[in-house]
């Protein structure tokens, strides 16, 4: 890890290559302020105390440590250039500055920070016993956020799911999301047990059952309307109620779940056109927007009802496409929180206080990777997050909706930084 951070203050994100670029932020004119930490009287930075219980915060998590656990943030704190990347981009400059950023090097850096031996050791340990339950053997759930099913017998694997809880950007440890792999035939019952245990009302599926002739996910729901299947051991009965194509390549299914004598309904939304190891086409931005609206609607329902209903999101491995959609939603959620407040509340001494409306794709993806291994898997997905947010800001006219005082404070800050740069 030491070779990640050069003595010159530049950040090497080479992934081991000898001729890699170094990420030098000095030419960008970005602010060097860093949140998620406090300044000691001697000028040193310290991480803020991390909360364990779910707690709504009146501001948004743009940068700083992941509340559940953060193994990479110590490296952010050790280098000012990495802090600049983590701090993000002011919303009114996002389109311009995102075009100027070296996203390939930025993504290499986030990988370097979050694909360490420490992260690897944090994956669930019982490899031999659980290997048959993992779709991909090198991708196992992190221990500290793993979803544990209620164990029904002496078999430790009865509680096992390759799934992790994921937080939103406006609460500490709310764990509203579950990111998981596409079920295998052998894990189908455990998948539905998880749906029932976590009272899931929405499942987002971002893959096909087969892609390029390869199995990517089990057909874990009934194929025909009014068809049912029952799991004898758990007693769960799953029935397909309806199927509707609501947009090209976007299918909505209504499913009924009966547990003994209780029944409830859930929505299963499947997007068919997102390629593995890739990103949606620009022509599918509206479809991605529709998926995000479903997530937003069910998230708000959960908040309004003060319930603990989770939202399950999965693709094949549950990291690439899944992580990308979660990153976009968390960025939108944070910005909407900023927009909702007439002025940004400053909480000196509290977790991740902010004074500027900013977007940190790097920070959001880094924190997701602290909750489930390798979230946002490839460069094209990382670039897609930037592209989607840029278009969303433009189409929603978001910047004009933001509180004027916030925008003005950021503009003034940028002018000060630019003036300072000229004087050096």
TrEMBL record:
The record's listing under PROSITE patterns reads:
TYR_PHOSPHATASE_1, TYR_PHOSPHATASE_2, TYR_PHOSPHATASE_PTP
Show the SUPFAM superfamilies listed in the entry: (Phosphotyrosine protein) phosphatases II
- CDD domains given in the database record: PTPc
The Tyrosine-protein phosphatase domain covers 103-392
Source gene?
Contig9979.g10669
- Mention any Pfam family matching this sequence: Y_phosphatase
| Stretches for region Disordered | 1-52
Limits of the Tyrosine specific protein phosphatases domain: 289-383
The protein's name is Protein tyrosine phosphatase
Q: Which PANTHER family match?
A: RECEPTOR-TYPE TYROSINE-PROTEIN PHOSPHATASE, TYROSINE-PROTEIN PHOSPHATASE 1
